[in-house]
User: Fold this.
Amino acid sequence: MSWTREFEPKSLSEVVGQEKGISRLRGFLNDYSSRKSKKKALLITGPTGVGKTCSVHAAARELGLEIVEMNASDFRNRDNIKSIMGNAAGQASLFFKSKIILIDEIDGISGTKDYGGAKEISRVLEVSSFPVIFTANDSSSKSLSEIRKKSVSIEFTAVNYTDILKRLQHICSIKKISYDEPSLKKIAIAANGDMRSAINDLMIASAADSKVDNSSIDFLYNRDRQDTIAQALVKIIKAKSFTDSSRALENVNVDFDEAMLWIEEAAIREYKKPADIQRALDSLSKADIFRKRIRRWQYWRLLVYQIQMMTAGVSLAKEEKYRKQSSFSRPKRLLMMWIYANKARAVNEASRKLARKMMTSSLRIRQSFVPYIGTAVKRSPRLSRQLMDEYELSSEEVAALAKNAR
Assistant:
């Protein structure tokens, strides 16, 4: 048995580092049982490994409730949701107990395969005889907008490393594992607020001889750690070191085209001397030349030159370090590109839904019908509501159609 399962909280009082969230979870279930709750669903959001799912299981054990658990990956379309979730929401418990319906990772329900999914979930919530609890990692996911309206929301946060350390010490005591304090503390810190990750790391580190010391946790420092784009920009814009700046993008999960926009905007805003800005932009223009040659002729050996020009070239363009503290925001040009792409995406998605119902291609809808539908929508709020109901268009998609009016 894995240690995460073995040491899973048996009651809500054993859940570590989520006192506020646990209080609200208990309050929701108590209000639901006494019919005080106006909403039938609870949405728990937060990073991986902070106790979202195990808290629901602990609550079920504590309150003597049966739990029916399913994952959003089980939901592939509206009919599938109706069959799986609808049955669970309407059927009485086999053991004549009340129950909780737990749907894990609900932010995974998105895309064309889940066509009409969120709307069907909302419908099932209206008729459910039992409380429904959703968990999600990404609280900002657009796929949660309908569910969020119908649910009480709770946010679980990353667990403080001191709380993780206490839990690891408790496990070491139960498992009779010897340890030195600095090594155990390193495991707690390296987990970055993820309790499950910390417990798994402890299990691996102590597997050889029931001991945790510096030599047994070397694996923690060989993990790939991702930097943020802001950390990379500090190395490029603030520092003046060829070695540090040329490697600034190595661990950043951003493509080079987007990184160039970030670096361009940061250099223009942060560099104060016109000559520094000129040299930085000259370096970026050379990086762009290499980028285009790579794209056109597939000469990937030129990528190293592109990276050097957009990192070290920009860093060394300044005569001296700029020491003033700065915060970096998303580039305006990138934001405009994102807004345009979102508008196009909304029109494309609306066209796809209309095409499915009208038995034609989405290309024909976009080219021949969208301008006229947009005009009609703009003039008639009633038609907007009909499109949303009959064709399952979102308000964002209807608004995008209206902006394409003739």
About this structure: The longest strand covers residues 66-71.
